Amino acid sequence: MPESSAAPTNVDALIIGAGFSGLYQLYCLRDRLGLSAQVLEAGDGVGGTWYWNRYPGARCDSESHSYSYYFSDELLEEWEWTERYPGQPEIMRYLNHVADRFDLKRDIRFGRRVTAARYDDAANRWHVETESGEHYTATWLITAVGCLSSANVPDIPGLESFAGAWYHTGQWPHEGVDFTGKRVGQVGTGSTGIQAAPVIAESAGHLTVFQRTANYSVPARNAPLSPEFKRYCHDRHDEIRAVIKDTPNGHPFRIAARKVFDFPAAERQEIYEKAWEKGGLQFRASFQDLLADKAANDTAADFLKGKIREVVKDPETAAALSDIDHPYAAKRPPIDTGYFEAFNRDNVSLVDVRRNPISHITPKGIVTADGTEHELDVIVFATGFDAMSGALLKLGIEGRDGLALKDAWRDGPKTYLGLQVAGFPNLFTITGPGSPSVLCNMPVPIEQHVEWITGCIAHMRDNRIERIEPEPESVEKWVAHVNDAANATLLPLAKHSWYLGANVPGKPRVFMPYAGGMKRYRDICDDVAAKGYEGFRLDGNDEKSAAVGDFAPAGSTDSPGI
Ligand code: NA7
């Protein structure tokens, strides 16, 4: 797209990333506050996560009518999704539509990968550099880099010697990959691998799935949206907005108030059957105590494991696929279109790499510990991301007195509200570690974060406040609260979860997302702002921060997001 040759490099606000969060942040700062703002985006187009994740079967697990911005009634009225779950190309069309409709692209500098961001205390400015050597400065620096954008390619010995082609799903070639007749190895069975495998199997000569942790999955039951449902979305968007703002996870459905053991086994089974037929993440909403009570969770886990054994015909494969080591939804629960059914095809096989680990890669393929060489033409790494903190640490951020973010977070990421880090004035992290983000339907926390940051910057401007950063004690309290919230759930029982950073060797194990629920989080943020940004240090006028109070403990009856 054409770019102004005189794009400003010294602005009020710099935003890194042009996905859901960066686009809305630009709109808020530029069009609502009238600030000068620029977005720096590594890709050649808008879309963020969806710009990079173009793998076969890439589709959002949130229902399309909720996977939308809700800030503009006009936008809600004019846009129409076509399927229950939006596929990657449709999400790209949506985000391009939003960017064009609000004339955002003129303030986005594409093809700019940020490599350094340094805070100059004396000038109270952020200095930002890009890979190509450009230099920008700004009063406020806002990261909108997404939670799942730093690809995790496992360090398997011999990968460089592989004679075929290999790809990570999060860095998929724009021109696509032709699997026709090829021997494909897919490593990873998270949400991505579960979406990709059935689609790859359709054209591959043979697909070998290398599974380390077996996973639950509920059928998505994706389908075109009916005219009646489309009309409902248009006519009732106020109602839908009210629901997604009120539910703990920002999804457009309420979590049932009932508890598992208030129902006899036969009735529970019926409830699970209905939820299975309906499909999607709503399965998780069948009972309110599924993520709070292990025995309750076991009933859902057993139901889902039974479904795997029903669907998959080969008993050995079915046993490996249903040998799941964590409670249902303690890791991000995938939803699928024909995943388990794919293992009934003659051209699909499973290798259980928990029992028989990958030892190395040769020019011909993947070798497992038992000495078998699985000959392959293509390897697909559906191995996830250095989630939540990875993309932020890659930006080369240095705060006050040269404090590097990677040093401040040596023992794991620490923020206040997921939005700011002590020692890094005027830096805001949209969906940062410690925010509800990935436990929610993402556009909901994104809109809340962006609006809160916009309000905070307006407050600073109106009151001539030059700097804002959290008091270290607020950060400590928030980190403790995030831990308490996680510990009130079964989420920490999944030892291999990326929520904990456990998927990346050497990464500190810290439960990163806030599991106390989106509504509670929104109330806390509103309260902090209403109390004059309680727990933050505000410099530049006489305003003093108020000491942060205690956050109400996350009770076990609260359902965390998924
Ligand atoms: P995930 O959920 O992190 O899944 C990655 C998968 O790759 C998972 O099965 C991992 O097993 C597996 N993995 C990772 N490294 C290896 C190695 N070295 N060997 C074998 N297997 C490995 O990423 P996704 O992209 O599927 O999903 C990310 C999020 O995107 C998802 O949660 C949604 O929010 C959208 P493990 O479980 O670590 O044993």
What would you say this structure looks like, in words?
The protein has 562 residues and is an alpha/beta fold. Among the domains are: 9-150 and 387-470, FAD/NAD(P)-binding domain (3-Layer(bba) Sandwich), CATH 3.50.50; 159-233 and 294-381, FAD/NAD(P)-binding domain. Helix content is 30%, strand content 15%. Strands 1, 2, 3, 4, 5, 6, 17 and 18 form an 8-stranded mixed beta sheet that branches. A hairpin with a 4-residue loop joins strand 5 and strand 6 (135-143). The radius of gyration is 23 Å and the shape is globular. The model is unreliable at 555-562 (pLDDT under 50). Bound molecules: ligand NA7. The site of ligand NA7 has 22 residues, from helix 5. Ligand NA7 is lined by residues 148, 154, 187-193, 210, 212-213, 332, 353, 358, 382-384, 438, 496, 498, 503.
Class from secondary-structure proportions: alpha/beta
Cα-atom Rg, whole angstroms? 23 Å
Q: Which sheet architecture does the biggest sheet show?
A: 8 strands, mixed
Beginning-to-end CA distance, first to last residue: 37 Å
Mean pLDDT: 95
> What is the share of helical residues?
25-40%
Would you kindly provide a brief summary of this structure?
With 562 residues, the chain is α/β, with parallel strands linked by helices. Among the domains are: 9-150 and 387-470, FAD/NAD(P)-binding domain (3-Layer(bba) Sandwich), CATH 3.50.50; 159-233 and 294-381, FAD/NAD(P)-binding domain. The chain is 30% helix and 15% strand.
